């Protein structure tokens, strides 16, 4: 800090993002961490005691928010030279990125380095949120494309099995998986007719993908023939998938909230330059 005008130099202004990452360490498992002793002068604190008080406040915040403190803050000690060959033990902390964020948020924002660190973490958090959102949307778009493809294979197998009433065949699978007809599912979710899969999130799409692929395989493997037997098979497979979800303690698909239409997801990804590896047809 410049003592004459109490402002940051250009080097100091870019420092927190650059220096923070440069002092990062990796443990034996490849997990990143920082040590408080290296961190505290970078955050503008003149004494260890003052900085340690900030860490303890951050720990209390973590506890009050239900975090497992040991995952983020780990106390340690190390030996340091004090001159003439003598050594003494000093306290230190091993901190993960979330702990560093909490420390910055609980620091004195009147200290320029703390204010800058708070801005840095806010920007990094927002970047991570946008990245995660984009990644989840891309996953959903790709999965929706896979479900669309697998549905075509299923109806081809159903046709070979002699199915002529495809609406009833389709409904049988939904009855098994959701415990109700497609029309009732869409009413329950308050979505338009024909929008179920286009408004389904990744979890719901995954359940339907499994229902579809396993029904196709069973129709072919057991050489099932006729409308009634094919519908029975589709419903049975749906029921098996539903039971698996229940056994795992998952949310029943009819209780999963609808998400924005897949075409809106595609638009967002295209705008972000991340169209996904698959395009829904």
- What value does the average pLDDT take? 85
Strand order of the largest sheet: 1-2-4-3
Biggest sheet character: 4 strands, antiparallel
The N- to C-terminal Cα distance equals: 58 Å
| Order of H and E elements | HEEHHHEEHHHHHHH
**Uncertain runs with pLDDT below 50, 5 residues or more?**
1-17, 275-281
| Count of discrete structural domains | 2
- The percentage of residues in β strands lies in 5-15%
Determine Rg (CA atoms, Å). Answer: 28 Å
Structural class: alpha+beta
| DSSP, total strands | 4
Helical percent range?
55-70%
Treating each run of at least 4 consecutive H or I residues as one helix, how many helices? 11
Shape: elongated
List the helices and strands and how they pair.
Elements lengths: L9 H13 L2 E2 L5 E4 H7 L5 H17 L4 H4 E11 L2 E10 L1 H9 L6 H49 L5 H13 L3 H8 L12 H20 L5 H21 L14 H10 L10
Antiparallel strand pairs: 1-2, 2-4, 3-4
Provide structural commentary.
This protein is an alpha+beta fold. It folds into two domains: 10-108, no CATH class; 139-271, no CATH class. 61% of the residues lie in helices and 10% in strands. The chain is built from eleven helices and four strands. The chain has helices spanning 10-22, 36-42, 48-64, 69-72, 97-105, 112-160, 166-178, 182-189, 202-221, 227-247, 262-271; strands spanning 25-26, 32-35, 73-83, 86-95. The chain has a four-stranded antiparallel sheet with strand order 1-2-4-3. α1 (10-22) packs across α6 and α6 (112-160) packs parallel to α9 (202-221). The longest helix is centred in the middle third of the chain and has 49 residues, at 112-160. The chain is elongated and about 90 Å long. The chain starts with 9 loop residues before the first helix and ends in a 10-residue tail after the last helix. Mean pLDDT is 85; it is low at 1-17 and 275-281.
């Amino acid at each position: 800090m410049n003592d004459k005008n109490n402002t940051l130099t250009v080097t100091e202004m870019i420092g927190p993002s650059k220096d923070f990452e440069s002092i990062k360490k990796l443990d034996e498992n490849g997990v990143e961490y920082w040590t408080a002793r290296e961190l505290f002068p970078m955050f503008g604190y003149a004494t260890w005691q003052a900085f340690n008080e900030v860490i303890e406040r951050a720990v209390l915040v973590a506890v009050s928010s239900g975090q497992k403190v040991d995952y983020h803050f780990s106390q340690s000690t190390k030996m340091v030279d004090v001159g003439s060959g003598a050594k003494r033990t000093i306290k230190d902390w091993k901190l993960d990125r979330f702990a560093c964020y909490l420390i910055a948020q609980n620091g004195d924002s009147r200290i320029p380095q703390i204010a800058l660190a708070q801005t840095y973490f806010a920007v990094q958090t927002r970047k991570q949120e946008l990245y995660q959102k984009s990644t989840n949307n891309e996953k959903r778009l790709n999965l929706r494309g896979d479900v669309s493809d697998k549905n075509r294979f299923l109806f081809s197998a159903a046709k070979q099995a002699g199915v002529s009433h495809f609406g009833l065949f389709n409904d049988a699978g939904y009855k098994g998986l959701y415990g109700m007809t497609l029309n009732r599912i869409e009413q329950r979710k308050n979505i338009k007719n024909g929008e179920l899969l286009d408004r389904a999130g990744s979890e719901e799409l995954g359940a339907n993908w499994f229902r579809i692929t396993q029904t196709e395989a069973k129709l072919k493997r057991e050489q099932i023939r006729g409308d009634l037997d094919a519908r029975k098979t589709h419903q049975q497979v749906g029921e098996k998938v539903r039971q698996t979800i229940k056994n795992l303690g998952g949310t029943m698909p009819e209780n999963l909230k609808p998400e924005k239409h897949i075409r809106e997801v595609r638009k967002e990804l295209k705008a972000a330059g991340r169209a996904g590896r698959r395009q829904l047809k």
